[in-house]
Amino acid sequence: MASTDTTRPAKENGDLAGLEAGLDALESVQQGRTPLRQTLVEKVLPPTVAVLLVLAVWQGLVSFKIVDDPTKLPAPSDVWDVVHQAWLQGELLGYIWTSVSRGLLGFCFALLIGTPLGLLVARVKFVRAAIGPILSGLQSLPSVAWVPPAVIWLGLNNTMMYAVILLGAVPSIANGLVSGVDQVSPIFLRAGRTLGATGLKGTWHIVLPAALPGYVAGLKQGWAFSWRSLMAAEIIASFPDLGVGLGQLL
């Protein structure tokens, strides 16, 4: 007579379920709140020490007369006195806003130009072959190199400032998006086409979200380049009608 005992399979099923639960518990990472002391030591202390070290070296160069010309390297205390005086007179915030507003507006323009340009280069082979190397070359060109031609072509005005920012930021944004699109898995594209996401719909719902890591990296670099370009333009092209920004103070 055949045996009808089902105790063993049930036990095996229970063991398997317990094993799976144990593996899930091992794979799960317990996310706890980082202690304040650890945050201070790992995040706050290193940059603070770096700033203090730079100030100490700076003060040492002045105190030991290694650089004795204040027009070349003023003491940190002298710089602080000037900044404090500008704050008391209500001028410091105006200087900061002049540069920040230029940088933000120029970066927004670069975003509006660099994003569709990057998509076009990434998706159209002819466009990539035509202007892809040009974008890479422009990205490697120092931002300060654009200031003299911009002054000659556009004059000493805000248009010149924004042109320098665009030339510094647009290639980085476009190349970042191209890099992100190149890393999109072909499986995503095929799945999108199967579900009817083609053309602009596929670009908006499939390509851009999947390319977001590279795009964000390009945005970060674009913002850094736009700010660097702005400082170079404000330092070189100083003119009363342009207003006083942080670059002129340098």
TrEMBL record:
Keywords for the protein's UniProt record, in alphabetical order? Cell membrane, Membrane, Transmembrane, Transmembrane helix, Transport
| Main location per the UniProt record | membrane
Localization (cell): Cell membrane
Bilayer topology reads: Multi-pass membrane protein
Q: Does the keyword Transmembrane helix apply?
A: yes
Q: Which ranges carry the ABC transmembrane type-1 domain?
A: 96-250
- Would you name any one GO CC term? plasma membrane
Q: Which PROSITE patterns match?
A: ABC_TM1
Tell me the Pfam families matching this sequence: BPD_transp_1
Question: What processes does the entry annotate via GO biological process terms?
Answer: transmembrane transport
Output the InterPro entries linked to this UniProt entry. Answer: MetI-like (IPR000515), MetI-like_sf (IPR035906)
Query: Which residue ranges traverse the bilayer?
Result: 44-67, 103-122, 134-154, 160-181
* UniProt family annotation: Belongs to the binding-protein-dependent transport system permease family.
Q: What is this protein called?
A: ABC transporter permease
What is the protein's species of origin?
Streptomyces coelicoflavus
